[in-house]
Amino acid sequence: MRRLVERIRRLSVSLWTLIVPPTVWAGHFLFSYLWAALNCAKAGRFATFPTLYVAGTVLALLLIAAAGAIATVQANTPGDPPPHEQSTDLDRLRFLAVATQLLAVLSAIGVVFTATPVAFLTDCR
Amino acid sequence: MDADNRIRQEGGTTAREATIDAIIGRRVTGSVLPALLLAACNRHQSALAPFGAEAASTRTLTIVLLVAAVVIAASMTLLMRHAIRTPGERLTHDQGMKLVLWAGGVFPTILLFALLAASLPLMRPAPVSPADLRIKVEGEQFWWRVVTAPGPGQLVSANEVRLPVGRTVAIDLAGGDVIHSFWIPGLAGKMDMIPGRINTLVVRADKPGRYRGVCTEFCGLSHALMAFDVVAMEPAAFDGWMAGQRGASATASAAAPGAALFARYGCGGCHAIRGTDAASAIGPDLSRYGNRATLAAGILPMTTANTAAFIRHPEATKPGVRMPAFDHMPEADAVAIATYLQGLK
Question: What number is the ipTM of this complex?
Fold first, then answer.
């Protein structure tokens, strides 16, 4: 575990971790719509046992959690308290890390808020 | 007149105008506000005066959301007032971040989730079985074709939907020409009527009475003049009404002078009257015309004069109407046809 944390800490500053949570959220949103539309159009009724949908939602939450975990490790790099506004590598890393953390929380909430109506729906009408 | 005088006079005029403006303003406020409040007294076409289960739960949800919105707005205002008045440096950085986390993140998330969970059960459509009564409604420019219990022994009518109280009713909605939307505010939410597609609205009325529905999707020039009457009846009365309506019209007499004129002017080319040769389904079915409470899809009171005027100049009441004008028809003929139609009960 410690080696993993060390490895994450050595990662270079990147926008990739930042855009993972909202991208996964958008993908899950599309998946939810396709799930309902395809079931209604092809099967003619709403899926009664949505294993695939639950798996997709769990996968989305795991990906968001992973991005959030990497961001948390990076945000905990020792340094001044926020705002991280200096044009140094350290501040850039910590700024991106905090932004990624917040986006991960928002995206996780978004995924749950999108999945709840799908769980409530029972009918294609 | 010297300059001082002129200025004084202009000043006087301005003051007078201001007073007049104030009086007009007061009058407008004095008349508009009560009018807005009086709109709440509308019992026959209001989502706030429900006569069906779905509209009742929608009203409850509206009240819950409204109260929540007011509470949130008031607490935010108080919080902002407190923040502005509190001297700086009262909170440490950590305390400030904690406040943002709880008051700005956790609390709104939980509250929004609670409101979402409260509203979701309403998205579940009411259960319906094949034994339940079906009513097929098609939107046309600018009227409603209503077929109660489609199939053998179906009852074709127009601009009036009758429902039994306490029974589940499935309303199959379709657009005959363009997209319309079917809304009985006191009964249930609105649903679109799309050509080539059937949307089913499941409703249950729980209070007998006369109500009103409207079209809520812009469908042409007379979109705002496309309404219909809704009659919620006790189940026994509804069954009696269905049995009584299926046959030929009670007073449809070929001997009536209007009946001959109806045939001579070719009204049967578009309209149907059960028990006569007129059987076309292009325009509204007129078999029980005399029983309807309103004329021209919920727009005019049902009188002979209104009917006669509508026959000769339908476009005067409904711009863009598909029925051609019969302005060459003598008024006496129009009145005779109107009298005949009103006798169809």
Answer: 0.81
